[in-house]
């Protein structure tokens, strides 16, 4: 029998769980929170990203350890944080169109939370200033800097100086500082990753110095994601914004073992068919796990001999040399290679304590909108 038993991820009441499902383990999440704080050195330096889990209970677990600043990607995530009474929320996106109006509605609705957003373009900044004036608020803005990922951000050159100077001098916005995301730096060797990260960050420090010469101070820099936040933790006056570390996944677990995070989210599925000799099919389809990764898309925990062959909306097909050992209904446990978009596929997380599913946590910000 190729199904291994008696492991940390197993649940004893699996008969009560409809598959596919996503299990979460609060004790492991707590370990990751403590480890995140240990790496940061000071809980006040942390601004974790909620995009991975989009869940109030995990937000509150962090708040219990003194974390009050957060980062998010959507208005819905920002509203969820406000409902959890988070004090400081950065929407790490360049908001345009109706989302700008929604931002101002958010500000007016949840007055106990300080909301901010990113900007990387002068004309966009001018429009946000007009919106702030119209809504009679002062909007905190972070200048997003492109250090090589080439996804968003302004290059740290003269145009960045012009933009930050504009933010600093305009009465309708508050220039908060720099936002620097270097998610393209994922070398598994820590020293090589640190070298690359330091080289990218040098341009940021140079920009800060050039602005200082002009009498413009940059009070705070938010830097990094999960792979680079231990490196940025070695710097002074830098806020850290990891996100994946809360649940961790098989991809980062393989690349960055030195972080000592624990995988805290497990997919559970069942074998539903053995359509031909050597072929096994489970109910874990595209709709239940992020499909953008190459195979393997999941790190199998208890059926390690299965070869991942193909996937469709409702089905995951494997090959096995031990075909006869598996039965219809057998459970398959695995860690997703990429957890962030996988969580958003589930309405609820199944909470596991002492080997049993004991409740459900709603993925409250998986959609585009909560109320605003």
TrEMBL record:
The family this protein is said to belong to: Belongs to the DSD1 family.
UniProt keyword list: Lyase
Regions annotated as coiled coil: none
SUPFAM superfamilies the UniProt entry points to: PLP-binding barrel (SSF51419)
A molecular function (GO) term: D-serine ammonia-lyase activity
Domain D-serine dehydratase-like: 264-353
Organism the protein comes from: Galbibacter marinus
Protein's UniProt name: D-threonine aldolase, metal-activated pyridoxal enzyme
Domain of life: Bacteria
Pfam families assigned: Ala_racemase_N, D-ser_dehydrat
Entry-linked InterPro entries: Ala_racemase_N, D-amino_acid_metab_enzyme, D-ser_dehydrat-like_dom, D-ser_dehydrat-like_sf, PLP-binding_barrel
Keyword Ribonucleoprotein part of the UniProt annotation: no
